[in-house]
Specification:
heterodimer; A: alpha/beta; Rossmann fold; Dimethylsulfoxide Reductase, domain 2; 2 domains; nine-stranded mixed β-sheet; 18 helices; 18 strands; B: alpha+beta; Alpha-Beta Plaits; 6 helices; 28% helix
Chain lengths: 396, 131
């Protein structure tokens, strides 16, 4: 089966004699605990059947003057398409976690502002592998062993200590920074913008605050190098994305350097791509104003009390957003569609129990590098996100 | 030193040193030695100790293992879960499990002190008796 615990979407998970093989600890818990803490279909705290819950959801959305649809990063592409259709029909806002996660990076790749590659190409060809502001040991546990530094690839078959050069950039000696030993470099960064400037100066052969000349020299030796950017890079750049992308472009004048986002939920890239194909934006979009804007971010809408109803799908903003923001949800009518009884589901006016994508329902998801994967569920449930969202769309 | 090596390799037991047990003057040394050799109980025949509490199943150890690369180049050697029936290691239920220690380069008479798996464990979940 394919594990849907994170955006690696590992496709070699096996079930044997009651054991789950090859999945990391995160994946194992995701798969083995799928029956625990399940959501119930309920309206105002009272358990109801699915049709009644869908009916109540439709009523809330119909009578709302400023609704938002939020989440969708853990559901399939097929379900995401339906959610976008609902937003279009309502003329509502639509946003996912990528607006505070790595949406800007995915947008730059989809708009072809920076060259990108697949993880399979990284495994087969990459020499210099830079992890910038991301500790994949925690967020994507098998990233290094399955796709990047450790596996032998078509043109990198002599092993990591000869055929790869690892660079880890972080504010602390993270778990993966400890792996930067032979043929590797750990850069302890204090200011990401200054580090980008150091790289730009080093390209021109000039010295600066950070000693990165050696990394540039290594990159020049190869025909395939890659940077994985995480949330540490995003927030460290303080909005200076242009400067960072200029560095990637400048490097490509000398030697191929590809960029890939590193982190996020199982199908966040799927949502970004699906919305991009529909409206030309990856997130925070208003169908009534027909544009994307920072002001339409879910957290911004909550801050300004600009919404009166929220359809929250497969995410738990009460747990993930700061209390100052999430407390404003109390003034909003909430419909939650989720397999689990999350904190958000437990305080929602309407809670609808859905199936766990990849375990109880099939469909398509998009890996962090844009490769599409067909899920291979171990069970089949009729009442999945697609069924529920189709019914809501019909009701509207 | 050779007795010490044999002790670590399980070729000798502490009881084989009779004066240690028979003469009262070695009582303190015997106690100390028992303490020192306690990790042997948890270690495999190659001296390997896996601390499951520290392991998150990242699989680095499985992919870097030279034996896996040689025997399973399209599976473990290429980053996938092992496809051979007798891998040294496997990830089961999110944790590293030792399956076939006899295939390890540290096993048997012509062993070498390979530490590649330990060197690439980000959380020191893998250790060997020698350190």
């Amino acid at each position: 089966m394919i594990c849907t615990a994170c955006s690696c979407l590992c496709d070699d998970i096996e079930l044997e004699d009651g054991k789950i093989l090859n999945a990391c600890e995160r994946g194992y818990k995701h798969i083995s605990e799928y029956r625990q803490n399940r959501a119930k279909n309920s309206v105002n705290g009272k358990e109801v059947d699915l049709d009644k819950a869908i009916e109540a959801a439709v009523e809330i959305l119909k009578s709302a003057s400023s609704p938002v649809i939020y989440g969708m990063d853990t559901i399939t592409v097929e379900a995401q398409k339906l959610a976008i259709k609902i937003a279009e029909k309502l003329g509502s806002y639509i946003d996912d976690n990528s607006s505070f996660c790595l949406g800007e990076f995915v947008e730059a790749i989809l708009k072809k502002e920076v060259p990108s590659a697949t993880l399979d190409q990284v495994r087969d060809y990459a020499y210099v592998i830079i992890y910038w502001g991301t500790n994949v040991y925690r967020s994507l546990p098998r990233h290094m062993s399955k796709y990047t530094y450790y596996p032998r690839g078509a043109k990198r078959n002599r092993g990591y200590d000869e055929d790869r050069f690892l660079v880890v950039i972080d504010i602390r000696k993270s778990e993966i920074a400890k792996l930067a030993k032979k043929n590797a470099k750990f850069i302890k960064v204090e200011n990401d913008v200054e580090l980008v400037e150091s790289f730009l100066k080093a390209v021109e052969g000039k010295a600066s605050k950070y000693d990165v000349g050696g990394v540039i020299r290594e990159m020049k030796r190869a025909d395939f190098n890659v940077v994985f950017g995480g949330l540490g890079l995003k927030y460290g750049l303080k909005g200076n994305y242009g400067l960072f992308f200029e560095f990637i472009r400048k490097m490509n004048e000398i030697t191929p350097l590809y960029f890939l986002p590193s982190g996020f939920h199982s199908n966040m890239r799927g949502f970004n791509e699906t919305l991009f194909e529909t409206v030309g934006a990856v997130n925070r979009f208003s169908f009534s104003e027909k544009k994307s804007d920072k002001a339409f971010e879910f957290s911004e809408l909550l801050r300004r009390n600009a919404i009166d109803a929220a359809l929250i799908i497969g995410t738990d903003p009460v747990s993930s957003l700061p209390y100052d923001v999430s407390r404003n949800l109390m003034a909003v009518k909430k419909i939650t569609i989720d397999p689990k009884n999350t904190l958000t589901a437990s305080i929602s006016e309407v809670s609808i129990r859905s199936a766990l994508s990849g375990i109880e329902s099939g469909g398509e998801m998009v890996r962090s590098d844009g490769v599409r994967q067909k899920l291979r569920p171990i069970e089949k449930t009729e009442y999945d996100d697609v069924y529920i969202l189709k019914k809501i769309l019909e009701g509207l | 030193m050779s007795f010490a090596f044999k002790l670590l390799n399980r070729e000798k037991k502490l009881e084989d040193c009779r004066p240690l047990f028979e003469e009262k003057k070695y009582e303190v040394q015997l106690k100390k030695l028992k303490e020192i050799l306690k990790p042997l109980e948890k270690a495999t025949e190659t001296g390997l100790i896996v601390n499951s509490d520290k392991c998150n199943g990242c699989g680095n150890c499985i992919v870097v293992c030279p034996v896996h690369v040689e025997k399973d180049p399209q599976g473990a050697g290429s980053g996938r879960g092992p496809t051979i029936s007798d891998p040294i290691y496997r990830i089961e239920n999110g944790k590293l499990v030792i399956k076939n220690m006899h295939a390890c380069r540290r096993y048997g008479k012509s062993r070498i002190l390979c530490v590649v798996c330990r060197e690439n464990c980000p959380t020191d979940a893998i250790s060997f008796l020698e350190g």
